[in-house]
C-alpha cells in the first residue's frame, strides 16, 4: 500500500515528484532544498541559513507522519560545494543527533541554484 505525503508545512514539489511516499512503516521523503513552504522562494544565502531551512522542511515532513528526526534511518546529502562540508555538518548534527546512516556528495548544480539538498528515509512504525 502506497500513501502520498501531502503537507502545506513543507514546500510543494517543484517538478514531477511528490513530497514523499509511505510504504507500510517506511517513509521515503523527497530531497528538501531551502524553499519557503509559504512562498516557494529560496531562503538564505549562506550554507548555514540554507541548511537550517532544509531542516525546517524535513521537520515538517516528519511531523506530517507523526515522526521526528530520531526516526530517520538514512539520509542522502547533496552539496553544491564540498568546501561547505564542515559548516553543513555543524547544522546537520544539531538535528540528526541519532546519527542515521548517510551519504554526502558534492554535485555540479542543484535546483534553483541552492547550496544543499537533503533526502530522508524514516521508520514510522511505532
Ligand atoms: C527539489 C527536488 N527534490 C527535486 O527533485 O527537484
UniProtKB/TrEMBL annotation:
Coiled coil: none annotated. GO terms for molecular function: deaminase activity. PANTHER family: 2-IMINOBUTANOATE/2-IMINOPROPANOATE DEAMINASE RIDA, ENDORIBONUCLEASE. SUPFAM superfamilies: YjgF-like. CDD domains: YjgF_YER057c_UK114_family. GO terms for cellular component: cytosol. It holds the Pfam family Ribonuc_L-PSP. Belongs to the RutC family. This is 2-iminobutanoate/2-iminopropanoate deaminase.
Amino acid at each position: 500500500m502506497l500513501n502520498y505525503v501531502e503537507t502545506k508545512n513543507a514546500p510543494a514539489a517543484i517538478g514531477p515528484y511528490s513530497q514523499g511516499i509511505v510504504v507500510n512503516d517506511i517513509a521515503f521523503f523527497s530531497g528538501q532544498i531551502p524553499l519557503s513552504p509559504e512562498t516557494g522562494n529560496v531562503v538564505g544565502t549562506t550554507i548555514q541559513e540554507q541548511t537550517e531551512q532544509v531542516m525546517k522542511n524535513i521537520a515538517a515532513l516528519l511531523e506530517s507522519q507523526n515522526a521526528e528526526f530520531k526516526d530517520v534511518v538514512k539520509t542522502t546529502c547533496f552539496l553544491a560545494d564540498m568546501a561547505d562540508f564542515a559548516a553543513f555538518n555543524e547544522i546537520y548534527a544539531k538535528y540528526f543527533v541519532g546519527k542515521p546512516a548517510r551519504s554526502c556528495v558534492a554535485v555540479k548544480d542543484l535546483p534553483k541554484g541552492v547550496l544543499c539538498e537533503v533526502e530522508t528515509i524514516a521508520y514510522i512504525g511505532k
